[in-house]
Amino acid sequence: MSAAGENLRINGDRLWASIHEMAEIGPGVAGGNNRQTLTDEDGEGRHLFKKWCEDAGLTMGVDQMGNMFMTRAGTDPDALPVYVGSHLDTQPTGGRYDGILGVLGGLEIIRTLNDLDIQTKHPIVVTNWTNEEGTRFAPAMLASGVFAGMHTQDWAYEIEDAEGKKFGDELERIGWRGDEKVGARKMHAFFELHIEQGPILEIENKDIGVVTHGQGLSWTQLTITGKDSHTGSTPMPMRKNAGLGMARVLELVEEIALSHAPNAVGAAGHIDVYPNSRNVIPGKVVFTVDLRSPDLATIEDMEARLAVGAQKICDDMGLGLEIEKVGGFDPVTFDEKCVTAVRDAANRLGYSHQDIISGAGHDACWINRLTPTAMIMCPCVDGLSHNEAENISKEWSTAGAEVLFHAVVETAEIVK
């Protein structure tokens, strides 16, 4: 395959302007975005992306999960496409760059190829995956998971949000349920550009993260039951405090994760306490423990120690315990050839870089099961993400998109 010359650069100002024009749809209350999946705002963002893609000469396909595929034809009708993209949906209090950078960075590849009148052997397809965030309809990376055969479409359609609205109904309502069978497309390779969502690249003063692996993830939901009783009049020895039981389990989670430092993490992010009253001892708590590591054996060890340790804590306190694994995926090793294309592009362009492990889940983690895949990361300020204060610089976005451009175009093969 032929590499793009180092003089080939994207238009960083145009990419930056597009990112902030998209951010005008579904604005948050503090400068970020609330463009949750399958909301009216999500539909509006999709229409703007479609317009931009059609203006760039791309043709659209949409599958039955609402995944958008915008294609620039290659010169070889038999060559499989190179896919590039991420997601346009956001957290309820999300930033302007998480996901969006990867989608619009893909569009910028096409715009630059058009500007330079460059053709590629393989088609290039810019992709918007539906419901990567998973906040309105859990789990995360839902539509790419269906595409990769990890979930069934029927199961996904029946998932309900907090108001009891079903994924399938909402997809139909906003008008983005396509006709294409999910997962029918074949790929030559897939690339995803994303902000790091962590502090490493900024601390190390690196322009580019070459993502070699993705952490595996395990979500375990624990339900601890005790007895509701008055906080003032119930003697301490007679209490069955589910909240205290949870606190001790969370101490255990911290201990387990630290025992595998530095390559493991653990915490509980989602916690429900019942009845959640100031003067009532909690009789029930439901919380989800998130355990992550790039090593499968480590995840399995943490899961086992959590189950045994939580049971002992609850038995000693006279509390009931139910444990259910509610989500997860194995660690990911990205394709060596695609990773090398990213690293070579960073070298060619003169950007500082380092290998990095993705601490978050991404659509690329599922697509890696189907086709050679790699990810590129750029720094974000203070490592902050899933927050309206999420921030990157124009220079970081430009560097990431230029490395993406070179890796994708090299893989798609320039036609001289």
- Helical fraction equals 25-40%
- Broad structural category: alpha/beta
What average pLDDT do the residues reach?
A: 96
Low-confidence stretches: none
**What global shape is seen?**
elongated
Q: Sketch the major β-sheet.
A: 9 strands, mixed
Percent of sequence in beta strands: 15-25%
Distance between the termini: 11 Å
Helical segment count = 12
Topology as a string of helices (H) and strands (E): HHEEEHEHHHEHEEEHEEEHEEHEHEH
Give a count of the beta strands, DSSP E runs of length 2 or more: 15
Gyration radius, rounded = 23 Å
What does this protein look like?
This protein is 35% helix and 22% strand. The chain has helices at residues 12-22, 40-55, 100-116, 142-147, 153-157, 167-173, 200-204, 242-259, 296-317, 336-349, 363-367, 394-412, and strands at residues 59-62, 68-72, 82-86, 124-128, 189-195, 208-214, 216-225, 229-230, 265-274, 280-281, 284-293, 320-329, 332-333, 353-358, 373-378. It is of the alpha/beta class and 416 residues long. Strands 1, 2, 3, 4, 5, 6, 13, 14 and 15 form a nine-stranded mixed sheet that branches. The radius of gyration is 23 Å and the shape is elongated.
List the helices and strands and how they pair.
Layout: H1 12-22, H2 40-55, E1 59-62, E2 68-72, E3 82-86, H3 100-116, E4 124-128, H4 142-147, H5 153-157, H6 167-173, E5 189-195, H7 200-204, E6 208-214, E7 216-225, E8 229-230, H8 242-259, E9 265-274, E10 280-281, E11 284-293, H9 296-317, E12 320-329, E13 332-333, H10 336-349, E14 353-358, H11 363-367, E15 373-378, H12 394-412
Parallel strand pairs: 3-4, 3-5, 5-15, 6-14
Antiparallel strand pairs: 1-2, 2-4, 6-13, 6-15, 7-11, 7-12, 8-10, 9-11
Helix pairs in contact: 1-3, 1-12, 3-12, 8-9, 10-12
